[in-house]
Design goal:
- The strands form two sheets. A seven-stranded mixed sheet has the order 3-2-1-4-5-6-7, with helices on both faces. Strands 8-9 form a two-stranded antiparallel sheet.
- Strand 8 and strand 9 form a beta hairpin.
- The protein is globular, with a radius of gyration of 25 Å.
- The chain folds into two domains: about 170 residues, NAD(P)-binding Rossmann-like Domain (Rossmann fold); about 240 residues, N-(1-d-carboxylethyl)-l-norvaline Dehydrogenase, domain 2 (Orthogonal Bundle), CATH 1.10.1040.10.
- Helices cover about 55% and strands about 10% of the residues.
- The protein is of the alpha/beta class.
- The model has no long low-confidence stretch (mean pLDDT about 95).
- It is built from 20 helices and nine strands.
């Protein structure tokens, strides 16, 4: 039997599409999927779809033996216990020097643990973030590997060949950093994605009472021709125009958003690192609130209708959307920067932005701008051009916020972005009140602005004698 260059475990939407991508690029591929009553046809159907150009297995031992050494295996299975279960099956079958890669949405700390566990057996482990959905996986995704450089080098040609290409023709794949770095940046990618999606939904909420679906789609399409150009804005315009018979399909979609946890992982990581991410947090919260459909239906009956007697300013909304997007990305990249420092990963933010310019869900014109920003600056808001863009947007930003509050229109990410911007650009905060409160009830001490910063004080705040 001819040995294959690469093996893929798991023929779900992403795994099957990546395997087809590899086959189309001329790689010899072995595929494996477990055999159960509900999955018994997956491997035969895949082989039929690909005209038997791959080797297919439901026996994992035969699958492993079908691969060239050192073996290169990409797991495309559900994050969590399923990954550990597959690793347990693989470990006795693979040899020292073989490479096992996890292309799912695993938590980066799980990846760190698995790297160390497999290292003891001489097996290389890569945590590979992959973005692009089914279409991207099939035609060219964005790929974010993390792990050992030598192991990545052996996988590099395959990953670069199947990846999307940026505007200069370079593959949208790069070794992000050691162990869990690839899965961490994929997690934050998804957090930014949550924010981007909810910002568009906020704009829809503000426009929908006074504009038809076709009109909103037209506005989004117009925005998408300029500096707002993005994959998400483009598909939203198309979604709003889709009809089922004479009715718009979007009006038949239940307003309960699903999530796979990566958005909340970003928020949790941000809290751990002490990095504020209110735009992302608001997007996560909005999804959780949407799932409480029954409660919302019940409570909404107590709220009187709000007549809307004015049309929102499209220009102000556009400026608001522009500012919010910059702030959303700033928050996400700040999480990555802080994590890179904590784990000493030395992540190149410019290179990360570059591979995010094509193939992934958050690809956009703005992301292309960040490639150059991070060549000169550490943080997005250190760039004077982007900061001035937000400063110029303050009045329309405030107008949009007031309009949405006046007419009780959902503005989850817009309002939190404004509060974030307002706080971030205010020299004197209210934290002195907090510090005094903490000192009074818990003797936590405080520092004074008229004394050296390394000195601590405590007072009896309620004794005015």
């Amino acid at each position: 039997m001819t040995k294959s260059e690469v093996g893929i475990i798991g023929l779900g939407v992403m795994g099957g599409s990546l395997a087809k991508n590899m086959i189309s690029k001329g790689f010899s591929v072995s595929v494996y999927n477990r055999y159960t009553d509900t999955e018994k046809d997956i491997v035969p159907n895949f082989l039929k779809d690909t005209s038997n150009k791959a080797q297919g297995f439901t026996d994992i031992s035969q699958f492993v033996n079908s691969l060239n050494s050192p073996r290169k295996i990409l797991m495309m299975v559900t994050a969590g216990a399923a990954v550990d279960a597959v690793i347990s099956e693989l470990t006795p079958l693979v040899d020292e020097g073989d490479i096992v890669a996890d292309g799912g949405n695993s938590h980066f700390q799980d990846t760190q643990r698995r790297v160390e566990e497999l290292k003891e057996r001489g097996i290389h482990y890569l945590g590979v973030g992959i973005s692009g959905g089914e279409e991207g996986a099939l035609r060219g995704p964005c790929i974010m590997p993390g792990g050992n450089g030598d192991a990545y080098a052996q996988f590099q040609n395959i990953l670069e060949t199947i990846a999307a290409k940026d505007k200069n023709g370079n593959a949208c794949v790069s070794l992000v950093g050691p162990d869990g770095a690839g899965h961490l940046v994929k997690t934050v990618h998804n957090g930014i994605e949550y924010g981007e999606m909810q910002l568009i939904a906020d704009c829809f909420a503000i426009l929908s009472p006074t504009h038809s679906h076709e009109e909103i789609a037209g506005i989004f399409n117009q925005w998408n021709q300029g500096d707002h150009q993005s994959y998400l804005l483009g598909i939203t315009a198309a979604i709003l125009k889709k009809k089922e018979g004479d009715a718009y399909l979007i009006d038949k979609v239940l307003d309960k958003a699903g999530n796979k946890g990566t958005g909340s992982w970003t928020s949790q990581l941000a809290f751990k690192l002490g990095i504020p991410t209110p735009t992302i947090n608001a997007a996560v919260t909005a999804r959780y609130l949407s799932s409480q459909k029954e409660d919302r239906m019940k409570l909404s009956k107590n709220i009187p209708d709000h007549a809307i007697d004015e049309i929102p300013s499209i220009e102000a909304l556009e400026a608001t959307y522009r500012a919010c997007r910059i702030l959303n990305h700033h928050q996400g990249f700040e999480v990555i920067r802080a994590a890179s420092e904590m784990y000493q990963w030395n992540i190149n933010l410019s290179e990360l932005a570059r591979i995010w310019t094509e193939g992934c869900i958050i690809k956009s014109k703005l992301m292309e701008d960040f490639v150059d920003v991070f060549k000169e600056k550490t943080r997005i808001l250190d760039d004077n051009t982007l900061l001035r863009t937000i400063l110029r947007s303050e009045k329309p930003f405030l107008y949009t916020l007031i309009y949405s509050l006046k007419y009780r229109l959902l503005n989850n990410c817009i309002s939190e972005s404004y509060n974030y911007y307002s706080f971030l650009t205010t020299e004197k905060s209210t934290a002195h009140i907090i510090q005094a409160q903490r000192d009074e009830f818990g003797a936590h001490t405080y520092r004074r602005n008229d004394r050296p910063e390394n000195e601590s004080f405590t007072s009896n705040w309620t004794d005015n004698g």
